[in-house]
Fold:
Amino acid sequence: MRFIKDLLFFELNTTGPDLDKDNVIQLSAIVVDKDNLLEKDFFNTYVRISYLDSLLLAHSKLLQVEYEVVKKSPKVADAVKLFHGKFNPGQILLVTHGTSNLFFLKAMFKKVLVPFDYNTHAIDLWTLGYIYTLNYGIKKMPSFHTFIEYFKLKQKQPADALEKVRLEAEVFRKIIKEV
Structure:
């Protein structure tokens, strides 16, 4: 199957699920070629949302990375500018496993006054997965872990958004190949 634009799969790690009080602390993405669905480029950054040592330490534990990595990571504004500068919004289509990721990403952009000029008609992997499970008789809820197990993929670092986004792209490839 060919797509009109390259696909930008993105994944976030946040401090929690509440868009109003929680923050993105890791932003990862890969660009997948529209014709062959192979990875062309990637982006990965941790996001420093505080200068308080206690919060940085808590975030490093949540992300399962060294404290110094989080301490040296870019602030939200810099992370958003790096992400936005890396991917041309007019040449990609966003792909994520759920709408909450899209809302968190848009909120990051809004917080630092960078226009969110990506097409908001994103491919929702959860919906695609739900349809797939109905058609292929999988008797489990179509979660990330259901597909990792079903397609016999290995997740080595569950807290790493870059690894997760690459696995999501692999699940997508396998679903597209079969349908």
Remarks:
- The domain at 6-178 is CATH 3.30.420.10 (Nucleotidyltransferase; domain 5).
- The longest strand covers residues 6-14.
